[in-house]
Write a structure and sequence with these properties.
The structure holds two protein chains of two kinds. Chain A has helices at residues 31-57, 64-96. By secondary structure, chain A is mainly alpha-helical. The model of chain A has no long low-confidence stretch (mean pLDDT 80). The two termini of chain B are 25 Å apart. The chains are: A mainly alpha, B alpha+beta.
Chain lengths: 100, 145
């Protein structure tokens, strides 16, 4: 007779049907979602830059360079977004020019 | 580690050098101050810098544990020069002692000027690092053009 250890009770339990896999945020999120995500990130950086300028003007921020760096970050992020947008428009136009 | 980490590290350097500049300005302004709150002449102040990993988020802390970190500079203390004050004979001065000597801060003008230039240059170096990091990011964006 086979010994049954207490660690081996899984075999005794009634088989539950396999649950469908947890639909965690799929790694291959749609392009639209990705785009929206990056839009909101860039917007967040722009808002931060706005806040930094206001803080400097009202004297809450003592360091001028912190404001400048926050603004530079927003600038770089926006430029990256513009590049992505240009690429998308380019791809769209290429497809539209395709002769059928 | 992304492009912005370099900016943040330079930012900490800029803040540190700005504070150093403030202390040097204080030292220069109080070069002949004989009265302070603690009593006695003004004592020269100097910052103590320490390299610290930025502990802003769990991810950053984890990265620093893996040795993948950019140490930020942080002012941990401001020390006061403990060297004895300069004694100047000036019996008419209200702060003169019984022998007619006045205790003046032991601040060397030349030394302060050298520190001033050093702080300015360090600040400029950090600004250059910020500019270089930004240029790199913008150059990367030109790949797609």
């Amino acid at each position: 007779m086979k010994d049954v250890s207490i660690y081996d009770t899984r075999g005794l339990l009634p088989r539950t049907p396999m649950l469908p896999k947890q639909t965690s945020p799929s790694p291959s999120a749609s392009f639209e979602q990705m785009l929206q995500q990056s839009f909101s990130n860039v917007n967040q950086l722009q808002l931060e830059a706005d806040k930094a300028v206001a803080a400097l003007a009202t004297g809450q921020e003592q360091d001028l360079h912190n404001t400048m760096i926050t603004m530079e970050k927003a600038d770089i992020a926006f430029r990256l977004l513009m590049q992505i947008r240009n690429k998308v428009i380019n791809a769209y136009e290429t497809i539209m020019r395709m002769g059928l | 580690m992304d492009f912005f980490d370099a900016l943040h590290t330079s930012s900490s350097g800029l803040s540190a050098q700005r504070l150093r500049m403030n202390l040097i300005s204080g030292n220069l302004a109080n070069i002949s101050t004989t009265r302070t709150k603690e009593g006695g002449p003004y004592r020269r102040k100097e910052p103590v810098f320490a390299a610290q990993s930025p502990q802003t988020s769990f991810r950053k802390i984890l990265a620093s544990q893996n040795g993948d970190h950019l140490p930020h500079v942080k002012v941990v203390r401001i020390i006061e020069d403990q060297s004895p004050p300069l004694m100047k004979y000036d019996p008419n001065h209200p702060d003169a002692d019984d022998n007619g000597y006045v205790a003046l801060p032991n601040i060397n003008l030349m030394e302060e000027m050298v520190n001033l230039i050093s702080a300015t240059r360090s600040y400029e170096a950090n600004v250059t690092a910020v500019k270089a990091a930004k240029e790199m990011a913008l150059k990367a964006l030109e790949i797609g053009k």
